[in-house]
Amino acid sequence: MGGPAELVEMAGVELRAGRAVIIPTDTVYGLAALPENVDLLFELKQRPLDKAVAILVARPADAEQMFDPFPVTRRLMEEFWPGALTIVQDGCGVRCPDHPLVQALAAEVGPIATTSANLSGQPTPDTASEAAAAFPAVELVVDGGKLQSPPSTVVEVTEDAIIVLRQGAVVVSGQEAG
Known about the structure:
By secondary structure, the protein is an alpha/beta fold. The chain has a domain at 4-69 and 91-148: DHBP synthase (Alpha-Beta Complex). The chain has helices at residues 4-16, 38-45, 71-80, 100-109, 128-134; strands at residues 21-24, 29-33, 54-56, 85-89, 92-95, 112-116, 140-141, 153-157, 161-166, 175-176. Helix 1 (4-16) packs across helix 4 (100-109). The longest helix is centred in the first third of the chain and has 13 residues, at 4-16. The chain is globular and about 45 Å long. The model has no long low-confidence stretch (mean pLDDT 93).
């Protein structure tokens, strides 16, 4: 495969064609598709439909395409993005990863629906080859080396509280917003 620009272009072609790709992020390998093709992720991953996936954006400001951030949401975005924090507000989970390839790809194609690149209930793979083996139907796998970071921390934000749904790479305490 070529350099980063070529990989972004190749991944963009796949995503725009309605196909999934496997990409490295700043935490784990992700199985990714455009939001309008999110059903493909559930099908490939054999994931229950009631478990949401995250939307990855190129820049923190792009989250405003998904929701109108509460003041506490803005503070979290300013403090932790780009980085390993997924913020759920109004039922939508969004993250701005600290990974140049993901940022470039999201800048190219728009927000990207992503979930960890493992079959539901299985361990998350550390390498592109392990992720590829789990999803033989996915034609494009971008190798980002061995990824051994914890997954992103997931918080749900309401107008008056931060609820930690999953503690991960970033430490955020649940608290009253204010």
